[in-house]
């Protein structure tokens, strides 16, 4: 249903390093890159996450209540993604663990403050 998600950044190089590390763990890489925009996803498929300096020239800000959820393969990958995020300038918003029956997730923010999680269902 969702084609891709674009997040704003004020420091494309710093944010790109964060998302390069996350994407590598998920088995994807940069698939599109311009001066002010980078997208990660599978070649021949849709982009998963795009990162951009805002087109209007104003500073990027975090959307309150907005979160991007990254589907992991298993509990161990949720844990690795959370650790990778923190090792690459992210901050913890909730350590990996069960969140009700059948849902396991770890929450974090990227260096610009955008909220993400890694999760599995079932």
State the CATH class. Alpha Beta
The CATH architecture is Roll
Which fold name fills CATH's third level, the topology?
2,3-Dihydroxybiphenyl 1,2-Dioxygenase, domain 1
State the shape: globular
Oligomer: single chain
The helix/strand order is EHEEEEHEEE
Given as residue ranges, the uncertain stretches (5+ residues, pLDDT < 50) are none
Number of strands: 8
Structural class by helix and strand composition: alpha/beta
Distance between the termini: 20 Å
Number of domains: 1
Rg to the nearest angstrom?
14 Å
Average pLDDT reading: 93
Largest sheet: 4 strands, mixed
Share in β-strands: 35-45%
Compute the number of helices: 2
Q: How would you name the CATH homologous superfamily?
A: 2,3-Dihydroxybiphenyl 1,2-Dioxygenase, domain 1
How would you write the strand order of the largest sheet? 1-4-3-2
Level of helix content? 10-25%
């Amino acid at each position: 249903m969702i084609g891709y998600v674009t997040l704003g950044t004020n420091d494309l190089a710093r944010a790109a390093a964060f998302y390069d590390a996350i994407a590598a763990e998920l088995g994807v890489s940069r698939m599109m890159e311009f001066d002010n925009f980078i997208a990660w996803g599978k070649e021949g498929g849709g982009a998963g996450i795009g990162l951009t300096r805002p087109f209007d020239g104003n500073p990027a800000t975090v959307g309150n209540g907005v979160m991007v959820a990254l589907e992991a393969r298993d509990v161990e990958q949720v844990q690795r993604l959370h650790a990778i995020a923190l090792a690459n300038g992210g901050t913890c918003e909730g350590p990996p663990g069960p969140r009700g029956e059948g849902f396991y997730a770890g929450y974090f923010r990227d260096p610009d403050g955008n909220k993400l999680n890694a999760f599995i269902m079932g």
